[in-house]
């Protein structure tokens, strides 16, 4: 009976994880090679919060770890600021919501390891990714702990959850800088040696931006008060807690038909 129950749970988990068998893995390499989650290309519903459960990874540049991901629409990312610390990697910046057929009044939503269920950021145990069309901002951070990657405060938005540089072609520094400054407790300041940063903007696109420095703040233009955001506490160390991520990357790469078929067979066998 116990074994039966366990199998049933496994079958259900298998089906749940396999509903979106492709495009479930993102990756953050640097400011020109990274992924975010967006509504599936064929989704008629373009509201982020409605499509968190079936979002797909969309990438730009080279992201070999993001198996099955799609390409980000050209021109969607308009600025990207990359930060790496001992505890996480992140990319923050501006986008052009229209390029991904999103809705300009949409306040956005958050994707993480639970939505879409079983999704991940290659090389890390957790991630949080917010897409905010109304302000044309996005943020993506991958961590091995649930403090730096806090799934539980999605309503607070990018600038609070992922303090960083949100500057870009639409200016925009002022819109998020206040929040970023107060929320900076988890930012990187410390260890210049372990912190790298680079930025790119749309005009120079995927070509430039190899430039990186050891400063925690990024290099793109007008950000006089950014010092405030990069000068507080040191990063929270990873506690290596992986219990929350119960679905392995391997299991979500199975083809949908096989997964669902196997699940139905298993369920049928259990009910017989
Ligand atoms: C994060 O955890 C993964 C294993 O889940 C490990 O391979 C990787 O090295 C860790 N990264 C850091 C920075 O600790
Ligand atoms: C690990 O996560 C579980 C559930 O997510 C939690 O109950 C536990 O306290 C966490 N452990 C640590 C060391 O954070």
Describe this structure in words.
- By secondary structure, the chain is an alpha+beta fold.
- The protein has a domain at 22-168.
- 19% of the residues lie in helices and 22% in strands.
- The protein is built from five helices and 13 strands.
- The chain has helices at 2-18, 158-161, 173-182, 226-229, 256-271, and strands at 25-26, 28-30, 33-38, 56-60, 70-71, 79-84, 88-94, 109-112, 120-121, 126-132, 137-143, 196-201, 212-213.
- The strands form three sheets. The chain has a seven-stranded antiparallel β-sheet with strand order 8-10-11-7-6-12-13, with no helix packed on it. Strands 2-3-4-5 form a four-stranded mixed β-sheet, with no helix packed on it. The protein has a two-stranded parallel ribbon with strand order 1-9.
- The longest helix has 17 residues, at 2-18.
- The chain is globular.
- The two termini are 14 Å apart.
- One 2-acetamido-2-deoxy-beta-D-glucopyranose is lined by residues 239, 241, 243-244.
């Amino acid at each position: 009976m116990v074994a039966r129950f366990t199998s049933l749970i496994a079958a259900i988990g298998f089906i749940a994880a396999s509903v979106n068998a492709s495009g479930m893995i993102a990756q953050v390499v640097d400011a020109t090679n990274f992924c975010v989650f967006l509504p599936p290309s064929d989704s008629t519903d373009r509201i982020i919060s409605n499509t968190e459960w079936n979002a797909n990874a969309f990438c730009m540049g080279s992201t070999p770890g993001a198996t099955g991901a799609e390409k980000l629409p050209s021109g969607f990312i308009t600025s990207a600021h990359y930060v790496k610390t001992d505890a996480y990697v992140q990319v923050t910046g501006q986008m052009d919501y229209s390029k991904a057929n999103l809705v300009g009044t949409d306040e956005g939503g958050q994707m993480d390891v639970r939505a879409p269920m079983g999704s991940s950021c290659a090389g890390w145990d957790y991630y949080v990714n917010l897409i905010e069309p109304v302000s044309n901002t996005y943020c993506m951070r991958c961590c091995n702990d649930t403090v730096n990657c806090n799934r539980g405060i999605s309503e607070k938005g990018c600038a609070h959850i992922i303090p960083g540089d949100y500057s870009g072609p639409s200016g925009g520094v002022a819109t998020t800088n206040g929040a970023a400054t107060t929320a900076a407790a988890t930012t990187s300041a410390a260890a210049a040696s372990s912190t790298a940063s680079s930025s790119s903007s749309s005009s120079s696109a995927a070509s430039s931006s190899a430039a990186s420095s050891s400063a925690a703040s990024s290099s793109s233009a007008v950000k006089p008060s950014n010092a405030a955001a990069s000068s507080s506490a040191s990063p929270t160390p990873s506690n290596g807690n992986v219990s929350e991520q119960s679905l392995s990357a391997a299991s979500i790469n199975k083809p949908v038909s096989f997964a669902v078929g196997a699940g139905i067979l298993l369920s049928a066998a259990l009910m017989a």
